Predict the structure.
Amino acid sequence: MTTYAFDPAAGQALLEAAGWTDTDGDGIRENGKHKLTVEYATGPETDVVQASLAQLIQAQLRANCGIDAHIQLDPPETLYDVWPKGVLFGRKFDLGVFPWRAGIQPPCDLYMSEAIPSDQNPGGANDTGYSNPAFDRACHAALAALDEPTARTMHQQAQAIFTRDLPSLPLFFWVKAGAVRSGVQGYQLDSTAASELWNIEKLTVSVPTQ
């Protein structure tokens, strides 16, 4: 796996080497007459977490990188619509931040070349447009493996390529929490289950004696 330390100075040096400098001292880098501005697509506006996260990332991009991020809060039907209408899967964004699925098996299929949205594949999930034949081969092998050791090895190869190329940056995992009243037995959270009551048939309630 390739890991990246938090190093704003290294990022700033890369931007300067690419010709992006802050010559007028306003905190935003420019290259000639072009300001380093990106459209930040997220939403919906009613999602307090996404709105707060957008403001944090906007502030950090400006302070650490000299990048001006314009926050665009879209409703779900606009943000998640399929190709070519949707903002994310229509690939009409510079920077997109949204919750995405994970499970026991790494979802490498989301980033294969064949998953890129297009007129021939409007339901494609690879909104980054990432395409790497070596990643595709490793992911296909992992998904087709008939034994767990082979699947694990091929997923590791795909993840190594993914972390090197980094088409998408996972920010954090949601914490799943639950609470039950005293006397409830068998309640157990499962991070891969859609509902906290996935094992409802095993739940029991004991009534305290008076």
